[in-house]
Amino acid sequence: MSDRPSMSLSGIVLDAPDARELAAFYRRLLGWTVSQDEPDWVKLAAPDGGPGLSFQTETAYTRPTWPAGPGDQRMMVHLDIKVEDLEVAGAHAAASGAVLADFQPQDDVRVYLDPAGHPFCLFTTE
Q1: Is the pTM here over 0.85, yes or no?
Q2: pLDDT recorded at residue 8
Q3: What separation in angstroms does the CA of 56 have from each of 1, 12, 73, 76, 117?
Q4: 10-61 has which fold?
Q5: Taking Cα atoms as reference points, which of 49, 64, 62, 52 lies closest to residue 101?
Q6: What is the mean pLDDT of each run of 10 residues along the chain (126 residues)?
Q7: Quick one: 62-126 is in which CATH superfamily?
């Protein structure tokens, strides 16, 4: 018997200068629906019932630098998004408002920056 209480991850939260703006980007990118919408908080629901993705407005938000050097604001978290085709998914990400990062550390992964500067990775398992 474990003394650990029952816990489950219900979501990931990203800070942004404008929660609604960043949520709209990820809604375009992922096609997820809004499950909660408040002035400074938006939550997107995963269609498979998995953890959702939430956004909160943070007025003191500092955009991370990718890749970070000494003294740069570092990312706190990044999202890994599995795709079937990197080129097709990358074109969709760009059309949704993402920017391809200048630095790409791997051939089978593409790093993009969302409108608030959070890096996220598109990858395949081929």
Answers
A1: yes
A2: 86
A3: 38, 11, 18, 14, 15
A4: 3.30.720
A5: 64
A6: 84 96 98 96 94 96 90 89 96 98 94 97 88
A7: 2,3-Dihydroxybiphenyl 1,2-Dioxygenase, domain 1 (3.10.180.10)
